[in-house]
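input
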Amino acid sequence: MKRTHATSLIALGILGVAVGFLLETALVASGNAILVTPLALPVTLMAIGVIVVLLALPIRRAVRATVKTHIDPFRAMRVAVLAKACSLAGALFGGWGIGMLVYVLTRSVVPGSGTVWLCAAAALGGIALMIGGLIAEFFCTLPPPKDEGESTDHAPAR
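output
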């Protein structure tokens, strides 16, 4: 499994900004109220980011320990895939929150300070999820091999 590239995170972030902005524009153009995320969304996204890092910590400790301990390869791969999914979803949610925030701030009449803060919190929650996923993915990578005969590809812990 390859590590998450910055280009995919940037592309998903831009896609999220476009979807967030255009969704708000379409809602207002059709006569509906704007979509404002509840406070539970950023709290949940931040909690998931912390949980995925906590799941990756035992794998990091086992890989970096001087005394080698057994790592369940299925658990390590599941955590690595979860970390990658969290980083990609965090980029999408962060971009979506930024798109909503840009729409709210570019209106001639700002709906209220609570709306601005909730949109900013949604963007920060998505960014926190992305950062947590990237940290957990880093924790699940193996160090480079000591022998020159082995591959230098950094793969997730097995």
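quick obs: The radius of gyration is 19 Å.
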